[in-house]
Structure prediction request, 398 residues.
Amino acid sequence: METSTPRGSSWPAVPDTERRVLLELLVHGALPRVRIAERLGMSRTSLSRITRTLLDAQLIAEGSSVPLGGRGRPAESLHLRHDAAHFAGIKLTAETMYLVLTDLRAQPVAEVERALHSRAVPDVVALIADSITEAAARGTGRARSTGSSGSSGVVDVVGVGIAVAGDIRPSAEGLLLRHSNFLGWDAVPLGQLVSAATGLPATVVNDVHALAGAHHWFGSDASHRSLVVFGVGAGIGSGVVIDGVLHPGAHGRAGRVGHTRIGGKGRRCENGHLDCVHSFVTIPATEHNAGVAPGEHALALARARRGEERALRAFQAAARALGAVVADAVNAFDPEAVAIMGEGVDMLDVAPEHAHAAMSEFLEQGDPDDVPVQRPPFTFGLYARGAAVAAMRELLSS
Ligand SMILES: [Zn+2]
Prediction:
């Protein structure tokens, strides 16, 4: 049994200006000193002082010289030491705890997956704490090859993020997880409980917001100042980036889209609608509307691809619902781009023209072709990586 624990590892106290430099390097990769000074509006002298602190703390390193504009002198670049710190990201579902340890590029160095034998809060918190210890020990070999093994013999974990479907609401006691229907939890101070159990800073984040934050920093063009990311699967939600910042909303509910009534008749949603976006767009709705049993999404998809009418209509209706909800988001935020991710986006392959037509129908004005819609590669592990990114964000941009 591994006796070392991640307890006691910590992110060095870094003043605000230093943190801004770290954030630039995290999001944009290696940058010449002159470019960093420009971007942050600071003098070369100030930047030199700041980078000295960060070099001494071994958070950044001097990179290879990059010629600027092809004619100037080579400029000295700086880059983040991606292995200087590791973060634990966790995605909780009704059945499973999935944990990933990542480096500062959000690249996984270890993973742990455990069934939830109990949904009692203390049991889940204990499972998370044990799994962090296990992953930190397991990540050592992998991290050692890149020279980042901590002196304690385990990977240094400096922060924890937990992604859950539910509202994450600020309160006097910190963030509270509200209305987590999958887990049957309400008003749980999950971050504080995990922090107490692990001795690490811990934060909790809505799972679709986690996906959006990770896509903004690491999956998309990080220069985007505004972005709406949809997560489509068992449910539908979205995360909104405005002015370069992920907005969780005043009550943790930003991006709760999907009850717009769009006509037709589909599966009854939890609000009792038969004709809202939820009635058509989610995996359970598509299964129901295609006439297959719950869990037989793949069968419904195969039937739709063969052109069987009922299944095909279900996917066409899902595509129309998705087009409608994307149009709503564009009407509300006018983002530079929209990204659609999740386990349930096959309707865009089966019936892309229905999504496009719905955007034309529901956009307040403008041409659907003006809105860049991205479909980034998706794996379920991205939720946990997104949670790790939320932990990074907590340390770097708060
Ligand atoms: Zn509804």
